[in-house]
Amino acid sequence: ARELTVFVKDIIEIEKQVETDDAETKRVELHLHTQMSSMDAVSNVKDLIKRAAQWGHKAIAITDHGVVQAFPDAHNVAQKSDIKVIYGMECYLLDDNVPVVYSKNGQSLDGEFVVFDLETTGLNANKDRITEVGAVKIRDGKVVDKFSTFVNPGIPIPAFITKLTGITNDMVKDSPSIEPVLLEFIEFIQGSVLVAHNSNFDMGFIRHAAHTMGEKVDNPVIDTLQLCRYMFPDLKRYKLNVIAEHLGVSLENHHRAVDDSRATADIFLKCLEIIKSRGAKTIDDIEEAFDGNQDYKRAKTHHAIILAKNYTGLKNLYKIVSESHLKYFHKKPRVPKRLLMKYREGLILGSACEAGELYRAILDNKPDKEISKIVQFYDYLEIQPLGNNQFLIDSGKVSGKEELIKINKKIVRLAQRFKKPVVATCDVHFLDSKDEVFRRILQAGQGFSDADNQAPLYIRTTGEMLEEFSYLGEDTAYEVVVKNTNKVADMTEKIMPIPEGTFPPIIEGAEEEMRQ
Question: Is 255 among the residues known to form the active site?
Answer without folding.
Answer: yes
